[in-house]
Specification:
The structure holds 4 protein chains of 4 kinds. By secondary structure, chain B is mainly α. Chain B has 21 helices and 2 strands. Chain B has a two-stranded antiparallel sheet with strand order 1-2. The longest helix of chain C has 38 residues. Chain C is globular, with a radius of gyration of 31 Å. Classes of the chains: A mainly alpha, B mainly alpha, C mainly alpha, D mainly alpha.
Chain lengths: 168, 522, 717, 103
């Protein structure tokens, strides 16, 4: 019962934050609403017993990415932005497409509802925290992707440094 | 080490290229020296091929096979026989000479220039060595890219137009060729249930004549554009006039031979019924004869020196295709030897234009006149190249043309009668070119101070001169190398050819006669 | 020293000389920094240098040049000695043929012969010495040596001295290869080689455009003949499966003569003959020989009188087995020979350039040789070739000495009265003129008279051929002595400057003249007519010597009915006509010098026709060079060369017109379609371009729309 | 239907988040907001991954979520780098004013 309430709470945080982020005129407000959404998502991770992801989400995403975005917003001093129209000329066409796709997804979900009526999530016996299990699988089968991810991050760092420097 | 000889020959230039890329581009001298070393190494590595080649063995030698894309049934399958041996040797020699000749001709982006050349070397050698259709097709495409850049970056005024035209024209052809390959590929699967691109496997596919004709036409488009045969030749003059000297030497000496090699390696053995089909043979021979006469005629009215030499290659390769489609042993052997000769003599002619272009930076024949007074050595080398190209006996041109004409004569006397006019026109446009540029009085003050050939230029010409003389005076080894592969080709296309009667004077008997030196027979 | 086995060395000596000249020639004879005549006159003025005249001033030459004048003639002398040794040893052999095969040169592959058998397309580098080639190598080396000696003097003041001797030696090498070859393929190598050397030597003064034009004309016209020759060789391959003379003769031995129309044998023989007409300047392809006079005189003597032009006759004689089996072609050979003889002789009447007269006289004499070969008397053809080599070479060298004396002047109308100024040249040329006219006692009489007798008596011959031959004999005597009287008799018509400079040529030139003069007399006595049976056997040596070469079939044809009385009568008639010709010439050009001009006007169109070589060159230019394109608008009259401007050769302008059309066709139609496709692709691309607005989010929206459509389709299906 | 939270709820939640992210991405002019919308979409994906990882007791879901985050971070970093360079040259961050890349 408690988890249901928590779920709806987090859902509300996520969707509310998302909608408000998208509609805010001021970029800083949008960033803050993004933080709210991310916290909601972190909560969902906790609900689904993915503690490691919860921590990663908090530290990495909120701590890292949103902070970076805030930095950039400050660098790019968006006060002039506030007075300009938020949505560009073709916003109607874009909205229409999004609505159509949304309708299709809902239709898919509804038509295929019974496919999801699986046996309720049987809670397997938890052999130790999910983080150890995560670690065992991660560093055995998926070692190579892990290394490649690290290289990807390195490239991203170098890329963004080069991009942002005045003179290379 | 020795059983991977072919791979070594194939990838030496590529290795040279990678090392070249690591060199600092500021040090121009080091780059040029290294490029020459890499090219010469490519040549040295190909020498053991000649010594280890067993002339009496049937089929392919020094075969290397490794799975490449198992899913498609494509193998890394290399092999060599008489025909591809000669062409590989031509590639390595002209490659080295082309790189040596562009020592002072190229002044910007040397590193990329030489890298392109070495990449091209590997591509070309790959085409001649691969016995797997997909591998062949890959190398066939690889060769286009460096030549596109060589023409496009270091070319003359209209280089972009020429480069794009060259690239798209050949690409269109090779796409159709790919269609042919795939039809063969699936046809083979339909009959044997196994997907493979190997040539000797594909040879076993029995196809109805009409299908064989269609595949032949698909191959024809791909190879004819490359040769180039008559209606598809308009890219050649543009590509040649705009390419830098070394570029047009490689283009003329080797790239054109990929087309004729394609006919010899793929069209004839894989589609024997189509190759002997009278309707196709008549079209092919008709186009070749038109190419011979048409090419020579157009040469007479050119005022651009390089364009003239380009059209002369159209005429010479008309002879080669005539030799191929006479489908007689002499025709085929003559055609391969003529391809080598064309590589040598036209390579020399382009180098000669390059020498003068470096000094005067113009290709118009009107600009030159009476150079024999100022540059006697140059005049001698030009005369030698001209005579070798016109087919004077004791030089290489004659051997090729004489054997091709004999093959054509044996196939159909009327063809030989028409083709023989080619040697008359050939002599006339070359002599007229020689007169307009070399003889007569000097009428242009700029021609007074032209320096004669320097040592490096002599080093570029010397190997070609010696090779031309060697083929002219003692062509026997070439015929011996070609005897077996050509016999196989003819046997496949004309089944009962050799059994007609025991050969009247087989090669061995001729040697026997030769040993009785002093026999005074009546 | 076994000369017979060393016959393959004979051609190599001159080759050694030629290669030496090409390699170290420039060091031995350093050329001046820029030879005076290298510059265009207007460029020369602009450069402030005096425009170089040909023989004006004599540039100084290095002493090492003398070395060249020893090396090159030396090599030919060694070849001469070797040849004499070989021929003497050959005479000792029982069966007169010795073949030395070095290696298989052209080792081709098997091929289907005419009758389906599989032969091997192979030709070896082999040399054959038999009486026929024996005679030829003696002629080539003997006459060649003396011409080399002569050119030391003649070319003494020319730049490019080493180049001249290099080409000359190369020529002797190719000629000896041609003559000594044991198969048609190697003969063809020599055939084209001499063609190349004639191109190089005619165009020796390459700063003169007319010289290089003449060189190209010679080479291309020869090439036309060679094309037919190649086809002939292939026919022989198809017929006999081999090209060795001995094997071909053996293979043909069995066949019977082709009486039924124009069979394969006749076609082969005709193709070979067309090749011969190209090389030996017969009717259709003789146009290059008169222009070949642009080359230095020793060249004309060696190549265009004694050796190269006779290659055609040698080849016909060499394939006598083939020709004797093809009576049709024999008739063609004889008629073309006779026609050429009379046609060239008529043109020689009106020529004023001394070398042109001799050139046409050569064409006419070659006509005689082919007439003899055509009627089956091959040994007579070779005998006439043998004697002709001596007196024609002498005439050319003599005219060279005259030109040398007159400071480069070649027009006979500006000569005259040189009899006492250059006595040796006069006497030697007189001997040669008597020989060519056919006066008894001199070489020409014996060989020409024998030809006329064979034309009359041989089964292949006919009275018409004899008549044409005899009339030509009269015309030959007339134009030769017209030349002699105009140059040596009467008063000197040269201008003061040249008149002062007239001097006798140095001994290095006059000695060869006297030797050849002796040859012109003695050579004839080797083949005395049968009617003079009273003379000992050695006088019939020539016919007897060549006997073994002829395949039996051809042999009987040569005999013919032999009535001595008839032969005496015909001989008397030809002598009478010769003397008459000389007297007419003397009358017209010595007693009444003004008469020829009056006759010229009186003869109406005949004289200008003769003067302009029956307009043959003009007709050739019009038909081939100018092409049919301008036919309509242009008046048929004479063109001067300026309008044609570089009409290179007989086929020049038509091919240039055809190539202009094909060039235009090539750039517009064939290339045009390619550019059209490119343009079409460009047109299609315009509408597509509007989608690319550069507005990133619009692309995203389009992607989303696409996804929506796909999803929708998937759901509905 | 509302009470026992089943996987379908999570799927609906992530679908909704995805839609909001897409709308934001497509309609907003300010590139920073666009970048943030992308983050939303990625988080929607993560929610799904984790939900199904829990549902099928397979850790691959979570592992993949980690990689998605890694990629998201890299993408954000580079995106912002580009944004700064763009802003320095063009003095604007409005996406519809940056349309040089057209024919």
């Amino acid at each position: 019962m408690v988890s249901a309430i928590l779920f709806y709470l987090f859902a509300l945080m996520i969707l509310g934050g998302a909608v408000l982020m998208v509609t805010r005129r001021n970029a800083v407000h949008a960033a803050l609403w993004l933080v709210v959404t991310l916290l909601g998502v972190a909560g969902v991770f906790l609900l689904r017993s993915a503690e490691f992801l919860f921590v990663v989400q908090i530290m990495l995403y909120i701590g890292g990415v949103v902070l970076l975005i805030l930095f950039v917003i400050m660098l790019v001093n968006l006060d002039a932005e506030a007075r300009q129209p938020r949505f560009h000329r073709q916003w109607l066409l874009a909205l229409a497409c999004a609505v159509v796709v949304g309708a299709e997804i809902v239709y898919v979900l509804l038509s295929g509802l019974e496919a999801f009526r699986l046996a309720p999530a049987v809670t397997a016996v938890q052999t130790g925290g999910s983080t150890e299990r995560l670690a065992d699988v991660l560093f055995s089968e998926y070692l190579l992707p892990f290394e490649i991810a690290s290289i990807l991050l390195l490239v991203a760092i170098v890329g963004s440094v080069v991009m942002a420097k005045k003179r290379i | 080490m020795s059983e991977h000889l072919l791979s070594i020959v194939l990838f030496t230039p590529l290795a040279g290229m990678f090392v070249l890329l690591l060199l600092p581009s500021s040090n121009r001298k080091l780059i040029r020296v290294w490029a020459n070393i890499a090219a010469f190494a490519g040549f040295l590595v190909s020498l053991p091929l000649v010594f280890r080649f067993d002339r009496s063995a049937e089929g392919f030698q020094m075969v290397e096979k490794a799975p490449w894309i198992p899913a498609l049934g494509a193998h890394y399958y290399l092999g060599i026989d008489g025909i591809s041996l000669l062409l590989v040797m031509l590639t390595t020699v002209t490659g080295f000479i082309a790189i040596l000749s562009s020592w002072s001709a190229i002044d910007r982006y040397e590193k990329q220039y030489y890298a392109m050349f070495l990449l091209q070397q590997t591509g070309m050698i790959g085409v001649f060595l691969s016995l797997d259709f997909l591998l062949f097709y890959v190398f066939w495409e690889i060769v286009l890219v460096p030549m596109y850049f060589i023409i496009g970056v270091w070319g003359g005024p209209r280089k972009l137009y020429a480069a794009i035209k060259f690239f798209l024209y050949t690409l269109a052809g090779s796409v159709l060729m790919l269609l042919g390959i795939l039809t063969l590929y699936f046809q083979h699967h339909a009959q044997y249930g196994v997907y493979t691109f190997e040539i000797d496997a594909l040879m076993q596919t029995a196809m109805p004549l009409h299908l064989e004709r269609w595949v032949f036409w698909a191959f024809f488009i791909g190879f004819a554009i490359k040769v180039p045969m008559f209606p598809f030749h308009t890219w050649l003059p543009d590509a040649h006039t705009e390419a830098p000297t070394a570029g047009s030497v490689i283009l003329a000496a080797v790239l054109l031979k990929m087309g004729t090699y394609g006919f010899l390696r793929f069209s004839l053995p894989l589609l024997p019924k189509a190759a002997i089909d009278p309707w196709i043979v008549h079209v092919m021979v008709g186009l070749s004869i038109v190419a011979i006469i048409y090419g020579a005629l157009v040469c007479l009215m050119q005022d651009d020196w390089k364009k003239l030499v380009a059209y002369s290659s159209v005429s010479h390769l008309g002879f080669c295709t005539l030799g191929i489609f006479s489908l007689t042993p002499n025709g085929l052997a003559g055609s391969v030897i003529q391809q080598i000769n064309h590589g040598i003599s036209t390579g020399m002619l382009f180098l000669i234009v390059g020498v003068v272009y470096e000094r005067r930076h113009t290709r118009l024949i009107r600009e030159y006149g009476g150079l024999a007074h100022v540059m006697p050595n140059y005049a001698f080398v030009f005369a030698f190249a001209m005579l070798s190209s016109a087919g004077l006996p004791l030089l290489n041109g004659f051997i090729g043309e004489f054997t091709i004409l004999q093959g054509a004569f044996e196939a159909n006397r009327v063809w030989a009668a028409f083709a023989v006019t080619g040697i008359i026109l050939g002599a006339s446009y070359l002599l007229w070119l020689y007169q307009r540029t070399m003889l007569g009085r000097i009428n242009n003050p700029k021609n007074l101070k032209l320096p004669d050939l320097n040592l490096r230029e002599w080093a570029v010409f010397a190997p070609l001169l010696v090779w031309a003389l060697w083929i002219g005076v003692y062509p026997k080894p070439y015929f011996e190398i070609l005897e077996k592969p050509v016999a196989q080709l003819v046997e496949r296309v004309r089944p009962g050819y050799f059994e007609a009667q025991a050969a009247k004077a087989p090669l061995e008997a001729a040697q026997a006669m030769e040993s009785r030196m002093e026999a005074g027979i009546r | 020293m076994n000369f017979l086995d060393a016959i393959w060395l004979i051609p190599l000596f001159p080759l050694f000389g030629a290669v030496l000249m090409f390699l170290i020639g420039r060091r031995l004879d350093p050329q001046p920094e820029r030879s005076p005549e290298a510059l265009e006159p207007e460029l020369a003025e602009a450069m402030g240098e005096d425009a170089g005249q040909e023989h004006g001033h004599h540039p100084r030459f290095a002493p090492t040049r003398r070395l060249i004048s020893w090396i090159c003639p030396g090599t030919v002398l060694v070849s001469l000695l070797f040849s004499i040794g070989a021929v003497v040893q050959l005479a000792g052999l029982a069966e007169k043929a010795h073949q030395v095969i070095l290696y298989t040169w052209l080792a081709g592959l098997p091929f289907h012969m005419g009758d389906g058998a599989v032969g091997r397309f192979a030709a070896d580098l082999g040399f054959l010495l038999d009486p026929l080639s024996g005679v030829m190598i003696l002629v080539v080396t003997f006459v060649g040596f003396f011409i080399h000696v002569y050119s030391i003097g003649y070319m003494g003041h020319e730049t490019g001295y080493y180049r001249f001797f290099g080409y000359l030696n190369l020529f002797v090498f190719f000629m000896l290869t041609l003559v000594l070859a044991n198969n048609y393929a190697l003969l063809f190598v020599g055939w084209e080689g001499v063609g190349l050397c004639s191109y190089l030597l005619i165009g020796f003064y390459f700063h003169r455009k007319s010289a290089s034009d003449a060189g190209i004309k010679a080479f291309v016209v020869n090439r036309i003949g060679d094309a037919a020759f190649i086809l002939g060789i292939f026919m022989i391959f198809a017929l006999t499966g081999t090209v060795r003379f001995l094997d071909v003769n053996q293979a043909l031995h069995g066949l019977s003569a082709e009486t039924a129309g124009f069979g394969v044998l006749s076609l082969t023989a005709l193709l070979l003959f067309v090749g011969a007409t190209g090389k030996s300047a017969q009717i259709p392809l003789y146009v290059w020989l008169p222009d070949a006079m642009e080359g230095p005189t020793p060249v004309s003597a060696l190549i265009h009188a004694a050796t190269m032009v006779t290659a055609g006759v040698y080849m016909v004689a060499r394939s006598n087995a083939l020709y004797s089996l093809a009576p049709e072609t024999m008739a063609v050979v004889a008629t073309i020979g006779a026609l050429t003889a009379i046609f060239a002789a008529s043109i020689a009447f009106a020529q004023n350039d001394i070398k042109r007269v001799l050139a046409y006289s050569t064409v006419s004499q070659l006509g005689y040789m082919f007439l003899a070969a055509g009627v089956g008397a091959y040994w007579v053809a070779i005998f006439h070739l043998f004697t002709h080599a001596f007196f024609k070479a002498l005439l050319f060298l003599g005219s060279g000495s005259v030109i040398h004396a007159m400071g480069g002047e070649q027009d006979m109308r500006k000569m005259g009265g040189l009899k006492d100024k250059i006595p040796t040249t006069f006497w030697t040329m007189a001997v040669a003129s008597l020989a060519i006219a056919g006066i008894p006692g001199f070489a020409g009489f014996f060989s020409k008279d024998e030809i006329l007798w064979q034309a009359w008596s041989s089964p292949y011959g006919s009275k018409a051929l004899w008549a044409v031959g005899t009339v030509t004999a009269l015309m030959t005597a007339f134009y030769m002595w017209r030349l002699m009287y105009m140059t040596f008799w009467g008063e000197c018509r040269a201008d003061e400057h040249t008149k002062a400079h007239i001097h006798e040529s140095p001994p290095v030139m006059t000695v060869p003249l006297t030797v050849l003069a002796a040859g012109s007399v003695l050579a004839g006595w080797l083949g005395v007519p049968k009617a003079w049976a009273f003379l000992p056997g050695s006088f019939h040596a020539f016919e007897h010597w060549l006997e073994p070469v002829w395949v039996a079939a051809a042999h009987e044809a040569g005999q013919g009915a032999h009535e001595a009385a008839l032969e005496w009568a015909l001989m008397g008639l030809s002598v009478l006509l010769a003397v008459a010709g000389i007297l007419i010439a003397r009358y017209l050009y010595v007693q009444r010098p003004e008469l020829p001009d009056r006759i010229a006007e009186a003869s109406g169109p005949l004289y200008p026709a003769l003067l302009n070589k029956w307009y043959v060159d003009e007709i050739y230019n019009f038909l081939f060079v100018d092409g049919l394109a301008k036919g309509g608008g242009r008046v048929l009259g004479r063109f001067d060369q300026a309008i044609v401007d570089g009409g290179v050769n007989g086929a020049g302008w038509m091919t240039r017109f055809a190539s202009a059309v094909s060039g235009w066709w090539d750039t517009w139609i064939v290339d045009g379609t390619v550019r059209l496709i490119a343009f079409a692709v460009k047109m299609i691309s315009y509408p597509v371009r509007f989608l690319q607005t550069g507005f990133v989010q619009q692309y995203a929206a389009v992607i989303l729309a696409g996804m929506a459509v796909a999803l929708g389709y998937y759901l509905i299906k | 239907m509302l009470y026992p939270i089943t996987t379908i709820h999570y799927v609906i939640l992530s679908a909704a988040l995805l839609l909001i992210g897409t709308v934001g991405f497509l309609t907003r002019r300010n590139i920073v907001i666009i970048l943030m919308s992308i983050e939303l979409i990625l988080n929607a994906v993560n929610i799904n991954l984790v939900a199904f990882s829990e549902r099928f007791q397979a850790m691959e879901g979570q592992i993949f979520a980690i990689f998605v985050i890694a990629v998201a971070v890299a993408e954000a970093a580079v995106g912002l780098g580009i944004l700064i360079a763009l802003f320095r040259n063009r003095e604007t961050v409005a996406s519809d004013e940056i349309d040089l890349l057209k024919w």
